[in-house]
């Protein structure tokens, strides 16, 4: 057997993590079938993994967007409460000043 074929078979077996085991195909037809099955197994696993990965990325992006929106909302509410406190303080100050002028 050609060394190139042996290297290809060993590389494919290692990359697909099927292992070498005690029982291995001897004929080229058996090796071809084993190789096709190994590659089919990779494709079968790669498709769902890519879909799950894409969905995870979408959900993570949504989560980050919502987290940033919540932080902005918290910042707006803090500023709003400070503004309301200032307006109430100014209003109270104005009424006190006005009452003082009416009595004197």
Protein architecture, described:
The chain is mostly helical. The chain has one domain. Helices cover 86% and strands 0% of the residues. The chain contains 2 helices and no strands. It has helices at residues 3-15, 28-103.
Summed up:
This protein has 104 residues and is mainly α. It is 86% helix and 0% strand.
Topology of helices and strands:
Blueprint: H1 3-15, H2 28-103
Structural class: mainly alpha
The number of E-state strands comes to 0
Helix content: over 70%
Number of helices: 2
- Provide the number of structural domains: 1
For the sheet with most strands, the description reads: none
- Tell me, what's the shape? rod-shaped
The poorly predicted ranges are none
Distance between the termini: 116 Å
Cα Rg: 36 Å
**Nearest-integer average pLDDT:** 77
Could you spell the SSE succession in H and E letters? HH
Strand content: under 5%
Characteristics:
0% strand, 104 residues, rod-shaped, 2 helices
């Amino acid at each position: 057997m050609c060394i190139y074929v042996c290297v290809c078979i060993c590389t494919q077996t290692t990359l697909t993590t099927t292992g070498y085991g005690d029982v291995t195909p001897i004929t080229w037809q058996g090796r071809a079938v084993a190789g096709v099955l190994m590659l089919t197994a990779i494709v079968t696993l790669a498709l769902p993994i890519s879909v799950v990965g894409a969905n995870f990325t979408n959900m993570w992006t949504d989560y980050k967007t919502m987290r940033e929106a919540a932080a902005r909302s918290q910042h707006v509410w803090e500023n709003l409460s400070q503004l309301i406190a200032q307006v109430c303080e100014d209003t109270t100050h104005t009424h006190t000043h006005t009452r003082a002028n009416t009595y004197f």
